[in-house]
Design brief:
The chain is α/β, with parallel strands linked by helices. It has a single domain, classed as 3-Layer(aba) Sandwich (Rossmann fold). The protein contains 13 helices and 6 strands.
C-alpha cells in the first residue's frame, strides 16, 4: 500500500508498517498488535481503538461459541461446520463469516446478534469480551502450518480491495509474516499469546484443532467438535456435515451464494475468494529451498518452547 492511498480521516490512527520498498498495511497498533483500520461505513463515526476496546465489555450468552484463529487457518471452514452442527441442518450460511466476526461487530453488534451464536475472531484472548473467561465460553482454536498460512494470507491480501491490499511480492510478505508488522501480528506471537492467556484463564473450555487434521480426516474432526460442544449428533449426520463442508463444495457456495459483507472485499479483476486451493503443502510452490530454510530458522527459534507440532506435507 502506498502512503497516497491512506484515507485522510484516519491518518492519526495509522502506524507505519512499510518496508524499504514502501509496501505495508492499512493498520494501527493496539495492545501490541497491528489491526486493520476499518472503512468509515463500518466505523460509524467511532475511533478504531474505541470500537476494539468496546468488545471487552460485550455481554455474552452462556451458550455462545467462539472460533479463535490466526488469519487463513480455516476459520470459514470450521464456522460452517459448527453452524451445521448447532442448527442440526445441512444448510450453508448465506452470509460470510465476517458478519459474525467480533472485531467487525464490536460491542453493539455482538450483543445484537440473535441466538444461537457462533462467533469468530483473529484477536488474542485478552482483547475478547471479559465474559469469555467469566462465563467459561467454549472456544475452539484452529491452527495451520505457518508456511501454508503465509501463502494463503499473501494471496488474500494481494487480491483485496485497496487500501487493504498488499502491493509487495511474496518474499517481502514472508518477511512481514515473520515480524510483528502485519495485520494481527506475527503468527508465532499469536499462538504463544493464546497458549499463555488460556493457561491464565483457569478452566476456560477450549479445543485445539489442526487444519491438516480436518483435511486428512474431516469426519473424525467433525465428531470431535460435536463432542466438545456437547451435541448429540449422530455419526451419519457428522459424515453428512463433513461432506457438505468439503473444500470443493464450500468453494462453490462461496462463489454462488455468499453475501452480507458490508463493504467491497475484492479488487476488480482479481477473482478474489476465501477459498483458493485449501491444500496441505502448497507452500512448496511458493518457497524456494533457501527461503524455506530461512523461514524455518526464524520460526523454530520463536516456537521452540511452544510444544506445537505442524504437518507440512500430506500424510
Amino acid at each position: 500500500m502506498s502512503s497516497g492511498q491512506t484515507d485522510e480521516t484516519f491518518v492519526m490512527d495509522l502506524d507505519d508498517t512499510r518496508n524499504s520498498k514502501g509496501h505495508g498495511f492499512h493498520c494501527y497498533k493496539h495492545d501490541g498488535v497491528y489491526l486493520f483500520v476499518l472503512p468509515p461505513e463500518m466505523l460509524k463515526g467511532a475511533r478504531p481503538v474505541d470500537r476494539i476496546n468496546s468488545i471487552k465489555e460485550a455481554e455474552l450468552k452462556d451458550d455462545d461459541i467462539i472460533i479463535c484463529a490466526y488469519p487463513k487457518c480455516g476459520t470459514h471452514w470450521l464456522w460452517e461446520v459448527i453452524e451445521m452442527l448447532v442448527s442440526g441442518t445441512l444448510q450453508h450460511q448465506k452470509d460470510v463469516k465476517e458478519t459474525r466476526m467480533m472485531e467487525f461487530l464490536a460491542k453493539d453488534g455482538i450483543e445484537a446478534m440473535p441466538q444461537p451464536r457462533v462467533f469468530n475472531t483473529h484477536l488474542p484472548l485478552r482483547m475478547l469480551p471479559k465474559q469469555v473467561v467469566e462465563k467459561k465460553i467454549k472456544c475452539i482454536q484452529i491452527m495451520r502450518n505457518p508456511k501454508d498460512a503465509c501463502v494463503s494470507f499473501f494471496n488474500h491480501l494481494r487480491d483485496t480491495n485497496p487500501p487493504y491490499n498488499y502491493e509487495g511480492d511474496f518474499v517481502e510478505f514472508t518477511e512481514a509474516f515473520l515480524s510483528e508488522k502485519i495485520p494481527f501480528g506475527s503468527y508465532s506471537t499469536y499462538l504463544q499469546s493464546w497458549k499463555d492467556e488460556v493457561a491464565a484463564a483457569q478452566g476456560l473450555p477450549t479445543l485445539d484443532m489442526y487444519y491438516e487434521d480436518m483435511k486428512s480426516d474431516p469426519v473424525a474432526s467433525v465428531k470431535e467438535v460435536a463432542r466438545f460442544l456437547g451435541l448429540a449428533s449422530t455419526d451419519k449426520f457428522c459424515e453428512d456435515v463433513a461432506d457438505a463442508c468439503s473444500f470443493k463444495k464450500m468453494k462453490k457456495v462461496d462463489q454462488e451464494m455468499k453475501g452480507g459483507f458490508p463493504v467491497k472485499m475484492w479488487a476488480d479483476g482479481k477473482g478474489g475468494t476465501f477459498y483458493r486451493k485449501g491444500e496441505i503443502g502448497d507452500w512448496k510452490n511458493w518457497f524456494t529451498v533457501a527461503q524455506s530454510e530461512r523461514f524455518d530458522v526464524t520460526w523454530n527459534k520463536k516456537m521452540k518452547e511452544s510444544g506445537v507440532k505442524f504437518t507440512y506435507t500430506p500424510v
